Task: inverse folding
């Protein structure tokens, strides 16, 4: 089974627009598993396909965990693996993997400190963790890969772990669904010193009980996102546009992959609302590749992002496409 769908993706050809606009892609994965491969060579091919992608940030996906280590230290294997891929990217030239967001279970109490120390020791690129907490009462909405219980993000144990994370100067990536966003409000208010980065627009769901109810979903989502926007430590990743299995767009089933005009039309109002609510200084575009590759190509994705933001000035767009990500993740300037 061709999970990478290269023949299908090849049916959509677009040329990168505004090729000189600098891009930091703050959300991608690296893996070689289950019939799908996305390693340095594939990332290099995408980031070199026409857009000016100069830096990237890897985000956890349970790659190459160290199965020989104690359970709380197994995710360190992923950080070592990504650091090796980052070295390979340097040899290939072009975009550099400039940051690594790994995993530490924030509910482990005192073991959190040991795990964070091990992650920091594994690579100088380590910038923070993502502890996915996506949960929904509907069996049609899959829980996150960490198998979280309901209400985890606002639990005392999680908040205590988040304080340890902040004390180490590290960031927290939040992957949860739109009905859970108010849990994140609790966390962000309880740990104001922690930089929190909401993944994939805060996941306004379009499947299961949320299918066919986009206006209602977006109304609920906006209310929660406005409460988050009041908290200055919260950033938003503008992306996940190809997450058909969560957003229910149906794009992955099209005969020909979707074009950037249609992506920009579908997501443009949502994206611009986020930018206007949080400000360009707290919003960053992301690719979420190769997950989003199930629905669209890398070139199409960034073309759509550029088309959505033609009404913003040069400084605002510089923030959205590069500078906000650099600041949030404390990335070194490009050499």
Result:
């Amino acid at each position: 089974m061709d999970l990478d769908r290269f023949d299908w993706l090849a049916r959509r050809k677009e040329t990168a627009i505004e090729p000189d606009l600098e891009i930091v892609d703050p959300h991608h994965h690296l893996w070689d598993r289950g019939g799908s491969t996305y390693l340095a060579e594939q990332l290099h091919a995408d980031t070199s396909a026409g857009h000016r992608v100069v830096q990237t940030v890897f985000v956890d996906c349970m790659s190459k965990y160290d199965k020989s280590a104690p359970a709380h230290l197994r995710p360190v294997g992923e950080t070592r693996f990504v650091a090796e891929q980052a070295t390979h990217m340097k040899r290939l030239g072009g975009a550099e993997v400039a940051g690594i967001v790994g995993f530490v279970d924030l509910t482990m109490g005192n073991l959190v400190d040991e795990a964070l120390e091990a992650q920091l020791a594994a690579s100088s690129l380590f910038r923070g963790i993502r502890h996915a907490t996506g949960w929904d009462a509907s069996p049609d909405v899959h829980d996150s890969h960490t198998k979280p219980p309901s209400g985890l993000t606002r639990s005392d144990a999680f908040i205590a772990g988040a304080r340890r994370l902040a004390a180490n100067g590290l960031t927290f990536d939040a992957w949860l669904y739109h009905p859970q966003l108010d849990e994140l409000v609790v966390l962000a208010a309880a740990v104001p010193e922690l930089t929190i980065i909401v993944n994939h627009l805060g996941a306004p769901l379009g499947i299961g009980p949320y299918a066919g109810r986009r206006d209602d979903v977006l109304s609920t989502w906006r209310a929660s996102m406005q409460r988050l926007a009041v908290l200055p430590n919260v950033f938003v990743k503008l992306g996940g546009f190809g997450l058909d299995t969560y957003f229910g767009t149906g794009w992955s089933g099209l005969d020909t992959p979707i074009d950037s005009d249609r992506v920009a039309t579908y997501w443009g109002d949502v994206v611009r609302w986020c930018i206007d609510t949080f400000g360009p200084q707290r919003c960053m575009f992301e690719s979420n590749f190769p997950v989003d590759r199930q629905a669209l190509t890398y070139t199409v994705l960034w073309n759509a992002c550029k088309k959505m933001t033609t009404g913003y000035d040069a400084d605002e767009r510089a923030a959205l496409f590069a500078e906000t990500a650099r600041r949030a993740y404390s990335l070194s300037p490009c050499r």
User: Anything to note?
Assistant: DSSP finds eleven helices and ten strands in the chain. The first strand starts at residue 22 and ends at 28. The beta strands are 22-28, 31-33, 36-38, 52-59, 96-102, 126-130, 171-174, 196-198, 234-238, 283-285.
